[in-house]
Amino acid sequence: MKHTDIADILSGKISAGKEVTACGWVRTARDSKNMAFLEINDGTSLKHLQIVIDKNVIKNNDFMHLGCGVKVCGVLVESPNIAGSLEINASEITLLGDCPADYPLQKKRCSMEFLRSIPALRVRTNMFNAVFRVRSVVSACIHEFFQKRHFVYVHTPIITASDCEGAGEVFKVTTIGYNPAFKSEEEYYKNDFFGQKAGLSVSGQLEGEVAAMGLGKIYTFGPSFRAENSNTPRHAAEFWHIEPEVAFAELPDIIEIAEDLIKHIINTCLSDCAAELAFFDKFVENGLIDKLKDVVSHQFGIVEYTDAIEILKKAEVKFVYPVEWGEDIQTEHEKYLTEQVFKKPVFVINYPKKIKSFYMKQNDDGRTVAATDLLVPGVGEIIGCSQREADLTKLLNAMKEKNMTTAEYEDYISLRKFGSVPHSGFGLGLERILMYVTGVSNIRDVILYPRTAGDIR
Ligand code: 4AD
Question: Which residues contact 154 (CB under 8 A, 6 or more apart)?
C-alpha cells in the first residue's frame, strides 16, 4: 500500500502544498457541523497527524471511530492553529478496518496494570510505542558497541545440559513426562530425547567462554530462562541477556568495558530517542533526562563488598534482611547503597565465595571471589560480572564444594588444561537496562509478552 510514514510527514521532509497519502489508526475523532477532525498514528512517531475533513468534500463518515484503521489522501498544509505543524486537508478517506465502540483504548490514560491485560493493543499507546522503540535502538547500539571493538557475536545454545549459575533454576526440556514406571530418575533421563537431563539455558556464559578461548573477544545476545519463583517487578522467566566474554582480561578490565557499554547505551538514547525520553520524563519519571546526563558525565562508584556491609551496618535504617558479612545484598540494601549513599551506579566488588558461582576467580584471601555486581538507583542489579577461575585445581575444588557433577562440564573444564589464560565476562539484562533508561518500574512493561511465574499467554 503506497503511503508515507507519519514520522517523515511530520519531520518536514515533504513541503506543504504536496499531495500525500498517510495510513494509521484513529487516535481522536472530533465532529462539528461542517468540519470533522481526526488524529491518526501509524506507529512511526509519537506524534499524531491531524486530518482536516471538509464535510462538503468527504461525504462518508464511517471512519469516525477510535481505533479504526484508515488511509487518507490529501494536501499537506501548515496548521493555522499550531505554528510549524503540518496537517492534511483530506480529499479521500478509506476505512481499512472498523473498530467497535467497546475499543479498550479510549481517550483517557489507562493504568499500566490494565494495559498489561491487553497485550495485543497496548503497543498502540504512546507509552509502549516509546518503550519498544527504545528497546529496538538499545539492541542495535549494543551490537554496534561490540562490533566496533572486534568482538565476535556468537549464538550459544538455548537447550543445554548444564546449569551455568548452579542455582537450579533451570526449566526442564523433555518430550516424556516422568512417571512411576521409570525405576529411577537416571532411567527416565536415559529414555528422554537427549538421553540425559536437558534444560533451557540460564546463561550463555559457559559456551561463551569456550568461544572466547579461540576468538578472543565474543558476546552473546539472546534469551535466557530462569525458573525462579520470584514475583518481583524486576524478574522475568524469559529475558534477553547480553554476555561479553574477554580473553586476557582481569576484573578491572571488564569493569571498564561494562561502564563504557552502559554509557554508550545511555548516550545513544539521549541522542537517538530524544522524543521518547522526553515522554518518559514527563509521564513516568520526572527528571529522567537530567539523571541520565548526570550518569554519563561521572565515573561509576566502586566499593568492596566488605566495605558495603560496613556501610549498611552503620545505616540508620531498619532492614528486613540481616546485614552480615557472607550474606547476599538484598534489594533493600541495593536501594540504600545506590539511592542514599552513592547516588549513582556502583560496582560492588569481591563478594564472599560461598554466595557466588563456582566459575569465579578465587582471590588470594581464600574467602572472596573477583566478582562484581553493578547496582543502579531505582532498579538494583543490572550486571553480574566476574573474572573467571583459570586454574584447573581451584576450579575443580570449587565445583566439589558446591556438590556439582563435573561430568556435565567436561568441555568447560578442559579449557583449563589447554592454554588457560585470565579471562572475564559479564551478563547484562536487556530489560533491566531498559527499565533504567526509561524509568519504567515493572519488567512486564518493557517486554512484548512477559513470562513470569504463574503468568503466560
Ligand atoms: O547475575 P547473573 O545471574 O549472571 C549470569 O548469568 C552470568 N552467567 C553472567 C556472565 O557473567 N556472563 O545475571 C546477569 C544479569 C543480571 O544482572 C540481570 O540484569 C539479568 O542478567 N537477570 C535477569 N533479568 C530479568 N529477569 C531475571 N530473572 C534475571 N536474572 C538475571
Answer: 204, 207, 208, 211, 215, 218, 219, 220
Minimum-distance ligand 1 atom for the alpha carbon of 245: 12
> In degrees rounded to 5, what are phi and psi of residue 60?
-80, 155
- How far apart CA 445 and CA 300 sit, in angstroms, is 27
What's the whole-model pTM score?
Answer: 0.97
| Whether CATH 3.30.930.10 fits 126-445 | yes
Predicted confidence band of residue 8 (pLDDT cuts 50, 70, 90): very high
> Which DSSP string do the residues of 349-395 spell out, in sequence order?
EEEEGGGS-TTBPBPTTSSEEEEEEEEETTTEEEEEEEEB---HHHH
pLDDT of residue 164: 84
User: Which listed CATH number (3.30.1330.40, 1.10.10.10, 2.40.50.140, 3.30.428.10) goes with 6-103?
Assistant: 2.40.50.140
pLDDT tens by residue, 43-61: 999 999 999 999 999 999 9
Tens digits of residue pLDDT in 243-267: 999 999 999 999 999 999 999 999 9
Residue entry with cell 538514547: 269
Q: For residue 148, give every residue at least 6 positions away whose Cβ sits within 8 Å of its Cβ, in sequence order, or none.
A: none
238 CB near ligand 1 (under 6 Å): no
Mean local confidence (pLDDT), 174-192: 92
Of all protein residues, the one whose alpha carbon is nearest to atom 23 of ligand 1 is: 429
